[in-house]
């Protein structure tokens, strides 16, 4: 099982991001997804900065993939998607059908988790368009993944979101700006204050969600470390970890050890529970509510 | 400008036709469509009767097959598409790319519309489905501004449809797993958001509580108007603030924007609410029919009587322009 580091979903200061990927270059991770996928207003890093981080990671032996922004509303958003799609150097992850359209015919792109690919017929269509990797949607159950891969197109790899706060929804409305009664276009870059998203609890004080600009995430972390055998059995070859402000490298070490059989799933879960931003959940994989531990 | 109205039952379909809908949209009685609620929707006999009723009066029927099939359930979705074609539906509305490919191949004459659940927010996305599968029309998510809708309409040969009135999704449709996160079922795979069986209401000393699978979505003081507990319409705590973190309960109402829609090339407006009563369908359809007729006669001005009739059917009696109003985002 290879480990992949998903795109950074949060908005961090430039120096923090550069330091983070410097540490990632030395971490046990095979593939790193780079780029801004959530909000086009974020500008701590330019597209060129992301390419430079890519060079550093490629030099360290990592496979680099550029992730395209998930929600495209304006011509500016489409320009950013086109820049990623035509970068000519790295593989690209499409997270909507507009980006898939731009990449159609380019061999070797990645069909990202926000593309809503739930059945073998859609997977076959993507393979026909040149995709060679499918990242399962967050809601994917074990049965769904197994059903997809039973008759998978030749040469197609499968990746599953395996650890981190779950990216549950996108909106055009910025909920971080809303908290401070600001409009999106005058947000004051409030996301910089919330390196793992802004926690939302229920009115009886239970952790529930985390708001990250236009994105809504879970309070707890998805964790499939106890499902490695089932994932392998289904034909999954990459496990995605989502970056967080603390402990990401330790999480990668723990998962690497679990994948290599050096850490039992029980011990790995215990280690990961101490490194997670909240409770560990795996409901989706078992066809249950996402905020349950089966 | 065409008017599309919802029908969750044969009486609702008749109400929509009688009050001036150009199209009525409906779904089968299962999870192949995004309003999979108990007691709602059409079996084959009701579908045939509905088609006959609409066609006899020169109106069209659109069948929604707009959830996402999986490997094990694929043939149920293709059977729904086949049934729409066999019974003579005027078009189907689909979200899943694989199913669109199937429909295009198996029924080349069947008109295809891209559902809002397909999450196509740009002309690049819509043009993909138009060029490859001949998709004739796309429904835009309720998160785009007028300027953004205009850009899409200019850059695609596909017809553009927008939501005019009804429930407002704050999240991009087809990209929201909040309901599945809380209760295990969401529109993409189950065809329902906050399904009734997972909802509980309880009077407590602290107020009326609404829960979704045990998760407290909101609590209402005496005199506060309670909203149906979808995750995005709840009140939550951030730091010391407890507030509607995503959206106040309100319905979308874009009636006043009809002339703008016409100017930027919107081809159709859609009324949300297959889960609503035939009386809702009748009254909302009547208002929008009058408004579109006035627009086409060149004498459109929003009437107070129209807005009052629509407000009666709005969530919390509140309406909003949603993303069509600049401060909303």
> How much beta of chain A, percentage-wise?
15-25%
Structural category of chain A = alpha/beta
Uncertain ranges of chain B: none
Shape of chain B: globular
From the alpha carbons, calculate the radius of gyration of chain B and give it in angstroms. Answer: 19 Å
The N- to C-terminal Cα distance of chain B equals 27 Å
User: How many structurally independent domains of chain A?
Assistant: 1
Per CATH, the class of chain A reads: Alpha Beta
Number of helices of chain B: 11
Question: Would you tell me which CATH topology of chain A applies?
Answer: TIM Barrel
| Structural Rg of chain A | 18 Å
Write the CATH architecture name of chain A. Answer: Alpha-Beta Barrel
Summarize this structure briefly.
Chain A is 33% helix and 22% strand. Chain A has 294 residues and is of the alpha/beta class.
Describe the structure.
The complex is a heterodimer of chains A (294) and B (329). Chain A has 294 residues and is of the alpha/beta class. Chain A is built from 10 helices and 12 strands. In chain A, helix 3 (75-85) crosses helix 4 and helix 9 (248-259) packs antiparallel against helix 10 (265-275). Chain B is α/β, with parallel strands linked by helices and 329 residues long. Chain B is built from 11 helices and 16 strands. In chain B, helix 3 (74-87) crosses helix 4. The model of chain B has no long low-confidence stretch (mean pLDDT 95). The chains are: A alpha/beta (294), B alpha/beta (329). At the A-B interface, helix 3, helix 4, helix 5, helix 6 and strand 7 of A face helix 4, helix 5, strand 8, helix 7 and strand 11 of B. Strand 7 (157-171) of chain A pairs antiparallel with strand 8 of chain B, so a sheet runs across the interface.
């Amino acid at each position: 099982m290879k480990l992949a580091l998903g795109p950074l979903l949060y908005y961090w200061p430039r120096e923090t991001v550069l330091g983070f990927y410097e540490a990632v270059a030395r971490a046990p991770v095979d593939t790193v997804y780079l780029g801004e996928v959530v909000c086009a207003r974020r500008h701590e890093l330019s597209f060129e900065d992301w390419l430079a981080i890519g060079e550093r990671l490629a030099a360290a032996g990592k496979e680099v993939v550029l992730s395209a922004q998930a929600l495209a509303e304006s011509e500016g958003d489409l320009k950013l998607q086109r820049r990623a799609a035509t970068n000519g150097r790295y593989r690209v992850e499409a997270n909507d059908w507009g980006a898939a359209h731009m990449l159609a015919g380019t061999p070797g792109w990645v069909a990202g988790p926000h593309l809503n690919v739930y059945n073998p017929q859609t997977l076959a269509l993507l393979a026909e368009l040149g995709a060679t990797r499918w990242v399962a949607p967050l809601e994917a159950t074990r049965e769904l993944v197994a059903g997809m891969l039973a008759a998978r197109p030749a040469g197609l790899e499968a990746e599953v979101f395996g650890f981190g706060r779950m990216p549950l929804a996108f909106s055009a409305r910025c909920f971080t700006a809303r908290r401070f009664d600001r409009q999106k276009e005058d947000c004051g870059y409030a996301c910089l204050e919330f390196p793992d998203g802004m926690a939302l609890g229920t009115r009886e004080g239970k952790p529930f969600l985390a708001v990250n600009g236009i994105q809504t995430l879970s309070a707890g972390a998805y964790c499939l470390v106890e499902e490695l055998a089932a994932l392998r059995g289904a034909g999954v070859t990459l496990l995605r970890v989502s970056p967080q402000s603390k402990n990401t490298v330790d999480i990668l070490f723990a998962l690497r050890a679990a994948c290599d059989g050096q850490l039992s799933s029980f011990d790995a879960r215990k280690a990961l529970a101490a490194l997670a931003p909240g409770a560990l959940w795996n409901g989706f994989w078992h066809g249950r509510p996402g905020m349950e531990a089966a | 400008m065409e008017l599309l109205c919802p029908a969750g039952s044969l009486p609702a379909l008749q109400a929509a036709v009688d009050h001036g809908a150009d199209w009525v949209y409906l779904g089968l009685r299962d999870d192949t469509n995004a309003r999979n609620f108990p007691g709602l929707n059409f079996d084959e006999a009701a579908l045939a009767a509905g088609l006959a009723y609409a066609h006899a009066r020169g109106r069209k029927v659109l069948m929604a097959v707009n959830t996402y099939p999986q490997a094990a359930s694929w043939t149920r979705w293709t059977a729904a598409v086949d049934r729409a074609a066999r019974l003579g539906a005027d078009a189907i509305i689909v979200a899943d790319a694989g199913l669109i490919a199937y429909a295009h191949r198996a029924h080349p004459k069947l008109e295809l519309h891209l559902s809002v659940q397909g999450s196509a927010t740009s002309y690049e996305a819509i043009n993909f489905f138009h060029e490859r599968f001949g998709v004739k029309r796309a429904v835009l998510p309720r998160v785009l501004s007028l300027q953004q809708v205009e850009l899409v309409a200019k850059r695609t040969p596909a017809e553009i449809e927008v939501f005019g009135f009804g429930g407002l999704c704050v999240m991009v449709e087809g990209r929201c797993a909040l309901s599945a996160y809380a209760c295990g079922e969401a529109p993409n795979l189950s065809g329902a958001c906050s399904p009734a069986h997972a909802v509980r209401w309880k009077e407590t000393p602290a107020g009326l509580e609404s829960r979704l699978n045990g998760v407290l979505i909101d609590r209402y003081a005496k005199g506060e108007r309670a909203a149906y507990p979808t995750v995005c319409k709840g009140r939550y705590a951030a730091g010391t603030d407890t507030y509607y973190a995503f959206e106040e309960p309100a319905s979308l109402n874009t009636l006043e924007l009809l002339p703008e829609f016409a100017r930027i090339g919107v081809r159709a407006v859609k009324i949300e609410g297959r889960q609503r009563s035939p009386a809702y369908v009748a009254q909302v359809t009547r208002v929008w029919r009058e408004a579109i007729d006035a627009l086409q006669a060149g004498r459109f001005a929003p009437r107070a009587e129209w807005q009052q009739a629509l407000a009666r059917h709005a969530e919390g009696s509140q309406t909003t322009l949603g993303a069509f109003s600049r401060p909303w985002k």
